[in-house]
Specification:
Layout (H helix, E strand, L loop, with lengths): L2 E6 L3 E7 L8 E8 L6 H6 L6 E6 L3 H12 L6 E2 L5 E2 L2 E3 L9 H13 L4 E7 L2 E7 L4 E9 L1 H11 L17 H27 L4 E6 L3 H4 L8 E2 L3 H12 L9
Parallel strand pairs: 1-4, 4-5, 7-10, 8-11, 11-12
Antiparallel strand pairs: 1-2, 2-3, 6-7, 8-9, 9-10
Helix pairs in contact: 3-7
């Protein structure tokens, strides 16, 4: 039973087609598109083996989500859109109002818990925004932070400072041009926040804290992070697989 998973973020829609709804299922196909291109989704998916179930998380807002649903409807599919729960797949949620935690953050944390079920973990997701979420060894999401991603940092500087519309640079030890200075500054700001959260979690938890790095812009941070870590490309998908594998049959076609 093929499962289609969707991650509708602030900038892009990511999709993956899995052979079945269970952890470690084979990823048969996958891709990504800008939100402006979601009207092409039905055409893209029609070229793939048909999915029997669809599960997804969306943080892009009601209008974009409705456009995605229309594309799925053209294929005779309906999506089970998830939201954060008080407890799910072996993880408890300490958010003040659990349902207000972003669905993509929750899915990524569930994916992390499946990977490291007996250790504390920190999930760094680098996209339009950056989130750093902390999981206890006992399986509790104990809190996290949100900060601007690379693009938002650059836009803020462009809006507030004349003459900073420059090509994307590289991370350098001592930047000697504006492009590299902007990229390195953003990377060090994000990595510095992540290292502070890691120190707090390490002081709280016994044993090793496993750091998982994910998100579309994760490669930009890898060399500057300064923490041992694992790069996981599809951590949100892994969380969605867990939810789908535990779902009751009557939930398969819910909206």
């Amino acid at each position: 039973m093929h499962l289609l998973v969707l991650d509708v973020g602030n900038t892009r829609l990511k999709w993956g087609l899995y052979a079945r709804a269970q952890r470690n299922a084979e990823l048969l196909a996958g891709g990504a598109m800008l939100l402006e291109e979601v009207d092409q989704l039905s055409r893209v998916l029609a070229a793939q083996p048909r999915a029997e179930r669809v599960i997804g998380c969306a943080v892009a807002g009601a209008v974009v989500t409705a456009r995605v649903c229309a594309e799925l409807d053209a294929l005779g599919l309906r999506c089970n859109w998830i939201s954060a729960q008080a407890a799910q797949c072996g993880l408890r949620n300490s958010y003040a109002v659990p349902s207000l935690l972003g669905a993509d953050r929750w899915a990524a944390q569930l994916g992390a818990r499946q990977r490291v079920p007996d250790q504390a973990a920190m999930v760094i997701s680098v996209g339009t925004a950056v989130t750093v979420d902390c999981l206890s060894r006992e399986g509790v999401f104990i809190g996290g932070i949100i900060l601007p991603g690379f693009g938002l940092m650059l836009k803020a500087l462009e809006m507030g400072t004349a003459g900073l519309r420059v090509p994307e640079g590289d991370i350098a030890e001592f930047p000697t041009n504006t492009s590299d200075a902007l990229m390195t500054g953003g990377a060090l700001a994000i990595s510095g926040a992540a290292r502070q959260m890691h120190a707090r979690l390490q002081a709280r938890e016994a044993g090793e804290v496993v750091v998982l790095l994910t998100g579309g812009a994760a490669p930009k941070l890898r060399d500057a992070l300064g923490l041992p870590h694992q790069h996981v490309e599809h951590l949100v998908f892994e969380g969605l697989l867990c939810i789908a594998g535990n779902a009751q049959p009557q939930m398969d076609q819910s909206t």
